[in-house]
Amino acid sequence: MSMSADEPRPRTLADLRRSGWRSRTVKQEIYDNFLAKLQAGEELYPGIIGYDETVLPELNIALLAQHDLLFLGEKGQAKSRLMRLIGSFLDEWTPYIDDPKIPLHDDPYNPITRRGRILVDSSPPEDVPIGWWARDARYAERLAPGTKFADIIGEIDPAQLAAGVSMGAEEALHFGLIPRMHRGIFAMNELPELDELVQVGLFNILEERDVQIRGYPVKFDIDVVILFSANPATYNRSGKVIPQLKDRIGSIIHTHYPLEREGGVRILEQEVDSKAEGGRRKGDGEDADAPAEDAASNALPVVVPYFMKELVEEISRAARNSKYIDHESGVSARLSLANYRTMIASARQRAAVLGESPAVPRISDLGHIYASSLGKLELDLMGTHQMSERQVLDAVVAEAISTVFGEYVDKHGLAEIGQIFSEGVKIEVGDMLPSSHYEGLIQRVPPIWDKAFEVNASQDPAVRASCVEFVLAGLYATDRISRSQKHGRIVYEL
After folding, report:
1. How far is residue 112's CA from residue 109's CA, in Å, rounded to a whole number?
2. For 13-254, which CATH superfamily applies?
3. 3-class secondary-structure state, position 112
4. What is the pTM of this model?
5. Which of 50, 131, 150, 308 is most buried, taking the most CB atoms under 10 A from its CB?
6. Which residues partner with 228 through β-bridges?
């Protein structure tokens, strides 16, 4: 039995016993609640995209097997988010002995502390106070680098020793994070960076389910689910993680980057559009070019053509496959998110300065993604041949534009537009040029430009300007026209 927010919660041990509440281990609690949601057809992992046929089936089985888990994958693959979502399978509230001298949330039916046992055994049930621990508070997370044994396991408290408490007594101990998460979930990020002494303490908890501090004969039958995350490059490297700890982890869940570009675009829409664009997405049953507004920026809505979303995601995909990027490090989904926000911010700046609405991102807005990209890409020093980060990023962006443009060429026959440049036409673009500038250019060149607007059907001048820049950048990336750049302006010619 679990308590919901609407039910009056018992405040004494006597009331708790009359309520019918039963004690369960954390793993059993997660198992019961997970199975109930599974049978009811409820959404199990809200916000997780692209893992339905790969990661999530394995995670489901691991939870039903009641295992401690390791999420193994490169950076930016939603490992931490998955760990936090496991907390949603806990009861909404769980009771504990509400005594200020008990340093953890002791089970009223099975207390593990000396103080808790004395209180339950020697006091009338009506006098044993009961508090309630909220679901969200029962999950704790720690980053491995710099973590010490005392931080997560515990230490002898010198103040208690000075007060005359025996060194072998329970009261002499200062508990770390894991004992304090008794009856909850503890997650450790970047496991291979954890000190070996702490790893020893962890595998003792995983196997024996007890905590021993500095070898003193005080033991606790700790009830906690342990979750880990790690990068394959460091986890599998010899000597980083002690074998005994590896052996005690129940299941390894392998994560991955989006297998298809569409999945990455959906992540962009989920994580950014709801804040930056107002949440409207391609395929929502509305005009894809309708201005979307949010509470923070309803005076300056943003519309992002779908091909611009594809480009941002393709930049990350191209980086993951680039010979210039260290593959062991990976390229986080955060690169796409940061670049997407930068692109939208550049479009908003232009719209604000020029008085245009809606703001529509263009290829020239990608000229600002150096700030949001550099530092997120770790170069392969053997493959770059002394190329700078900016040069590597330029190469990656060019490849991404070429890839996406090639798909649109096949669909719309855009390559024919290159013919207009044989007549000596020069076209200047830039992130701070008004949309009317592009309308004037289009009127002076053949109607063949109409094919460019098949990319994103719209009569809005700002959207059409974005289409023009996409086609020009694609023609340049595929070596059909040349380009010169100066002071933020770009001139395309044959």
Report:
1. 10
2. P-loop containing nucleotide triphosphate hydrolases (3.40.50.300)
3. coil
4. 0.85
5. 308
6. 70, 188
